[in-house]
Write a structure and sequence with these properties.
- Helix 3 links the parallel strand 1 and strand 2.
- With 77 residues, the chain is α+β, with helices and mostly antiparallel strands.
- Helices cover 31% and strands 8% of the residues.
- It has a domain of 42 residues.
- The protein has a two-stranded parallel ribbon with strand order 1-2.
């Protein structure tokens, strides 16, 4: 990957950087201050996250056709 980064004058860290993008904080916020609709762009969260969002009053909407498993109960656990 460094070869690709070199073309842009970038230096990558020696080890991959783990970053969950504050996932838990975002889910906590959505369950404590629910919004009408929640969708996910990258993948399907586990069943407990979807259930918590629904209990909070949000409708969980698939982000793509592939993610339609959410509404049909096919979410990964």
């Amino acid at each position: 990957m460094q070869a690709e980064a070199d073309g842009y004058g970038l230096t990558l860290p020696a080890e991959p950087v783990e970053d969950d993008d504050h996932w838990t904080d975002k889910i906590d916020l959505l369950t404590s201050s629910p919004v009408p609709w929640v969708s996910f762009t990258f993948g399907i969260p586990n069943r407990s996250v979807i259930s918590a969002l629904r209990r909070a009053g949000s409708t969980v909407m698939p982000g793509s056709v592939v993610d339609s498993r959410v509404e049909t109960g096919g979410a990964r656990s």
